[in-house]
Amino acid sequence: MADTQAGAERRRVLIAEDEALIRLDLAEMLVEEGYDVVGEAGDGETAVRLAEELKPDLVILDIKMPIMDGLAAAERIAGGRIAPVVILTAFSQRDLVERARAAGAMAYLVKPFQKSDLVPAIEIALSRYSEIAALESEVAGLTDRLETRKSVERAKGELMTKYAMTEPQAFKWIQRTAMDHRMTMREVADRILKEAEGDTPSTE
């Protein structure tokens, strides 16, 4: 992984965690995996300020932090479309995962985590963030945007089930098909869903 990261453009990551040892471990893991740690913060307020200044590719936020917690910071960073957010949560905070999602987090990691958990969470967050950015550039209105996202999510599910695609592969297929046929991604998604309904009438 480190090789591929080094070969490509290195992703710039900002870490916000109030426990210095965890922050140190996390920074070490990221560097070993080929990411650039461009900033570190011990509270949510500093994390938001650094995110605005540094414009990183990704922000990793712990939920429990002083001054401003990770959920409030995630809301500011994700809401401002600054960068995708990965939330760090302890096992006892699993109930906060939904709140983290609502705040705009793209993925989460449960502490204590291994290095093998870190890269998939980062890649999921980056992938989902780029999908949302692509969809939002296509659709202006908020209601249409939400409907488009719903259609595309369902169509991705169909492609993943039918053709054993991964989530990023399914999205790329929809995106490429839309470009090739000069259609919107919503139109491609709706067509996939219509065909799926036609294929399986007996399940209705």
UniProtKB/TrEMBL annotation:
GO terms for biological process: phosphorelay signal transduction system. SMART domains: ANTAR, REC. The modification 4-aspartylphosphate is found at D62. It comes from the Bacteria. Pfam families: ANTAR, Response_reg. One of its GO terms (molecular function) is RNA binding. Residues 132-193 form the ANTAR domain. Residues 12-126 form the Response regulatory domain. Keywords: Phosphoprotein. This is Response regulator receiver and ANTAR domain protein. It comes from Actinoplanes regularis. The lineage of its organism: Bacteria, Bacillati, Actinomycetota, Actinomycetes, Micromonosporales.
